[in-house]
Amino acid sequence: MRRAYVMHAKLALQQMFAYRAGFFLGLLGNLFFLLSMFYLWKVLLTNPRFAHALGWNWSQMKAYLLIGFVTGILVSTFTDFTMANRVRTGDVALDLTRPIDYQKARFSETIGVALFEFGTAVSVGAIVVAVFGGMQPPTLQAGLLFAVSLLLVVPLKFGIIYMSGLVCFWTTNYLGVVWSRQAIVNIMSGALVPIVLFPGWLQTLANVLPFQAIVWTPGRIYLGTLQGSEALQSLAVQAAWGVGLWFLARLMWKVAVRKLVIQGG
Amino acid sequence: MAAASRITRPVALYARCLAVQIKAVLEYQADFWILMMSSVLMNLVGFVFLWTIFSKIPDVNGWSFWQVVVIYALVIVAEGVGSLFFEGAWNLAFLVNRGELDFMLLRPMSPIAQVMSCAIGMNGLGNLLLGGTLIGISLNHLAIHWTAARIAIALVLLVSAIAVKIGLNLATNASAFWIQSPFGAFAYSMHQLGDLARYPITIYALTVQALITVALPFAFVSFFPAAAVFSKNDWRVGGVELPLRWIGLATPLVAAYCLWMGVFLFRRGLRHYESAGN
Fold this sequence. Notes:
The complex is a heterodimer of chains A (about 260) and B (about 280).
Chain A: H1 2-18, H2 20-44, H3 48-54, H4 58-73, H5 79-89, H6 92-97, H7 102-132, H8 140-166, H9 175-188, H10 200-208, H11 216-223, H12 228-259
Chain B: H1 2-26, H2 29-54, E1 59-60, E2 63-64, H3 65-86, H4 92-98, H5 101-106, H6 111-116, H7 123-141, H8 148-173, H9 185-194, H10 206-215, H11 223-229, E3 235-237, E4 240-242, H12 244-248, H13 251-272
Antiparallel strand pairs in B: 1-2, 3-4
Helix pairs in contact in B: 2-3, 2-7, 3-7, 3-8, 8-13
């Protein structure tokens, strides 16, 4: 049984290698976004009032933006697009007849792809560091906690993209769903603006949603603004969201599979 | 009569092609609403981003909040017009990849027009709605002295800015004739390069400014036309003060160049095209 899941992960990783040109061009898009953020924040932080409100200097902000870049690429849009395509072509009927758990199979694929995504994101990130330089390195303790936090981003983001992929069991147009999801994740994760700069009500909203655990939590752990028991608490919240979304997705699946219309034949 | 129909016939044909696409879209009404809402949401998030920043800072490189919103909204509007009327350009990669372009080459209508009108992005309607609203609100907040001449110039610049985006869309998507990929991945990453023009480009390093001003002039979709309407001057390049507002007035020329480049690359690509077969 376990071998079947490992196989799924391997196949997904191979597919990623086969279609790497598309992936790298997509990565270029993320890189342009990072570039615009770098220049914009550099100018913004020359204003002392702004720098004070944020509480970070330019070197720290660079590190934060880079973390947003890496977690943005990690578990991005492979699993959900594959799901959507298989619903559209009707191939999902085959997935349903297989004697393995649908959600676990998708999770295995996500892990396989995540290895590839993480490898490239870190290499590209290293180049960005080389070009822009002067990035704050973490303390040993912060570095270790950050690694755990980054790992916890994987199940959390899987829950989000898997559930948005399931929406395709209702609608055939996935593009709109992806756009909406990306918009919400972008703002509520703190990838665009560190959550501390939000007005009060938006901060409250962001803190009760799972998205802040994607960038805002690992970012602050890396920079050392979340330390000790506070950091451990945030890691627990991250893990809890990962588990919670997993079971929420199970519920959603039960409803979705009854709604599904198989196309073609 | 003959001269008139030479112009009206292609336009009427183009409208017919789009009308068919609208019928196809309205067959799936839920999809239509999802796409529309998502485009509004996506662009609204960008607005919230600007609003959050400017609540802490009065201006960015001499550009006030509402001026930056106009730059941002111009990108949204240009994308909206592109999606609504010229979305087919994004399908070129798919058409080439599947060899479906062959059918279009046999019909008595310009292949460019057929490709451009073979799809419609209803998300463009959301873009126009939000972008138009944002421009309206911004202009209301900005004390601009509107004369007849300024209004005329603003309208010409708006149309030109949109044409720049459409020309660049066609030009970058024409890459599909050379780069084999089932979707326009290259064009899409260039589209994201264009997102750099959502902010005053003076914040960027000189090479980045040159890239989006000269190589792929995305800055003429938003930044330069806005600079002309606001009579901006502060653009320093290597210690030299450049007349920003006058450069902005060159937007129609840049538009003509971009459209020409799009058509030129498409025709070049067509000559290069070998059908994938059916």
